[in-house]
Design brief:
With about 200 residues, this protein is of the alpha/beta class. It contains 6 helices and 7 strands, in the order H-E-H-E-H-E-E-H-E-H-H-E-E. Strand 2, helix 3 and strand 3 form a beta-alpha-beta unit.
Length: about 200
């Protein structure tokens, strides 16, 4: 991808995944879309696998880094034959009807002692969840004016089927000791270390 570094709401939070990559030998980008995260992970992690179910999007992603193992398939059912030191999923879980099954599968793909980072979209169902959304509006306008906005080519799903309350409850049930927090641009982050 030529020109200035692209920016959008998903790319804004890539650093949260990249910060967890230190010391990892293997990484999985589950639902890689246009492949920018997988490419950036491969700069830090020697063995990166990226999977997406959309063939056209994946074909565009492949040109970014031939060293990444690009896989056409469903992360929930594909047999990788191994687990990964770092599993990342950005803006993918809201495409799935069963949030709990998605989190369980990502946890299964995480190696013992490994890290899971999920950045997702959800919808506000309580007043307290609307506050960060409202704060994001002027911040979004300012960032777009400063950096522009790059529109990814991956399929979208709006509105998200899960609320922030759904996500918090499901994370608590499926990933004990996980850290859940709201992010600025209509996103949440889940960070979890699998017990060794």
């Amino acid at each position: 991808m030529a020109g200035p570094t692209p920016w959008n709401h998903n790319l804004h939070d890539h650093h949260l995944v990249l910060n967890e990559a230190a010391g990892c030998a293997t990484a999985l980008d589950a639902g890689c879309g246009d492949g920018l995260l997988a490419r950036d992970l491969h700069r830090q992690v020697p063995d990166v696998t990226a999977i997406d179910a959309d063939a056209a999007v994946l074909n565009r992603a492949r040109v970014l880094d031939p060293g990444v193992d690009w896989v056409l398939g469903d992360a929930l059912s594909h047999d990788f034959g191994r687990r990964f030191d770092l599993v990342a999923s950005i803006a993918t879980l809201h495409h799935l009807p069963d949030l709990a099954a998605g989190l369980r599968r990502l946890a299964q793909l995480t190696a013992p002692g490994g890290r899971l980072v999920v950045i997702g979209l959800a919808r506000a169902d309580r007043l307290v969840d609307l506050v960060p959304d409202l704060v994001a509006v002027p911040a979004n306008l300012a960032r777009r004016a400063q950096r522009g906005y790059w529109q990814h080519t991956a399929p979208t799903c709006w509105p998200p089927p899960h609320s922030y309350t759904d996500v918090r409850r499901t994370v608590t049930a499926e990933l004990p000791a996980a850290r859940y927090r709201r992010l600025l641009f209509w996103r949440y982050c889940v960070q979890w270390r699998k017990p060794a």
